[in-house]
Every structure is written in C-alpha cells, then in structure tokens.
Design brief:
Shape: rod-shaped
Order of helices and strands: HHHHHHH
Low-confidence stretches: 1-5, 9-14
Number of helices: 7
Radius of gyration: 39 Å
Helix content: 55-70%
C-alpha cells in the first residue's frame, strides 16, 4: 500500500511538480512555523523528519491529516508522555514549595526553641538579674542565695 503524502513530508516542497515559487515559500514558512511552535512545547523535537521516523510517526501523520495542525496533532499523539512530564514537573514543584515553606518556618523560628536548661539538684529556681534587682529595692543587703530560697518557696506555694 502506498503512503499518502502529506504537507509534513514535503521537505523541501520544491519536489512537487507544478508548484510555483510563492506557494513553495509559503509551505516552507508554514512548516518552519509549525516546527518552532512544536519545539516551544517540546524542546527535544529536532525536526519533523525525526518525528515521522519515530514509532508514533504514523499516528502523528493521521492526526495531522485529521486536525490540520502540527501542534494539536503532536499533543494528541504524545498525550500520555506530555501528561507524565506535567505530573512530574508538578510533583517537583510541590516538593520545592514544601522545602521552601519548611526553610522559611525554620528561619522564622530561629533559635527560640533552645532554652537555658535548669541546674540539676538544688531548688531548680532560676534567678534572673531583674528579680534580684527587684528584691534589692526593698532590701539592699539581700544575697542571691536568700532571694533564690525565697523564690523557690514562693513557687512551691503557688503550685499548690
């Protein structure tokens, strides 16, 4: 069975008998425009001839004859591959967005989660400079150990 010749197979179209120079130039321009639009969609496409030699070349030709547009025919023919690529890209973007969100949250939290540990043994009451100064307003001779003992007893009473 002889293959039907389509516009895609005419590279260059000068081989067609009875075709004038203007129509040839128009067909070549159409084919180059379709190829550039297709390469924008799928950069791995090298040439129309490479597409036709591909295992799905026949299906591409049939879709081209039916639809009349190379880009639409390519999308229909390679739908599954394009869909898989889009899914992979969307998944990668979601992973990158999650990583960026986690990094931003980590930067925002900073080192606030790191707190000073309480000393082991003893009362475990932490005495800040502000508390000590407040006690010294009333009794300038009070020592840090006395304030710590009072604060510890106060906190124990407060828990009950």
């Amino acid at each position: 069975m002889k293959k039907k010749k389509t516009r895609l197979q005419m590279t260059p179209p000068a081989e067609e008998p009875g075709m004038d120079g203007i129509r040839q130039a128009e067909l070549v321009a159409e084919m180059e425009e379709a190829l550039s639009a297709l390469q924008a969609l799928h950069p791995e496409v090298e040439s129309i001839e490479a597409l036709l030699e591909d295992e799905q070349g026949e299906a591409l030709l049939e879709n081209m004859d039916r639809l009349g547009d190379l880009v639409a025919a390519y999308r229909l023919t390679y739908f599954e591959e394009l869909l898989d690529e889009a899914r992979a890209q969307a998944e990668e973007q979601a992973i990158q967005a999650e990583r960026a969100r986690y990094a931003a949250a980590s930067r925002k939290a900073g080192k606030g989660h790191l707190q000073r540990t309480l000393p082991r043994g003893g009362t475990g009451t932490e005495l800040t400079q502000a508390i000590l100064e407040a006690y010294r307003l009333f009794d300038p001779a009070v020592t840090a150990d006395e304030v710590r003992a009072y604060e510890s007893a106060y906190r124990k009473r407060k828990k009950k």
